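FW: tagging you since you asked about this chain on Friday. Here's the raw sequence from the shared folder, copied in full. Didn't touch anything.
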Amino acid sequence: MSEPGSAGPAGPAGRLFARRRRANVVGGRQHRHEVKVTPEEEALLLQAALAQGVTVPRLLVEATLSSAVGETPTERRNAMVELFGIHRLLAAVSNNVNQIAKATNATGEVHEDLVQTLRAVRRTAERVDTAIDGLSPR
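HL: got it, structure written out here
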């Protein structure tokens, strides 16, 4: 669930993914750290947190604990939201192309560009599915 009033990178359609704060954990978080920064560093932290749609504490924890690749859970979530959006777009395009194919079939003429377009849409959708599967939490 998202925090009331928060608007994540996905907007209303991606509400499932839009959460600024980290989820609560059983027993709470027992340790607290204080970090002092200059006004310039604060501005950079705020800018980075805003760009990722998270709080500064979450940004600091994720950046520090991210994998060797440097991907944070927030970056992974944002990538998944984007890929889901692309997949929906491809589905809509495929539907339109299929309607064109039906119309073409009514005349008995199949245009080569239609066939190539359908193949490209299917290949792209498969690549997106593969990418989403690779990003899913393990």
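FW: The longest helix spans residues 73-107.
HL: agreed, and The two ends are 20 Å apart (CA to CA).
FW: great, closing this out.
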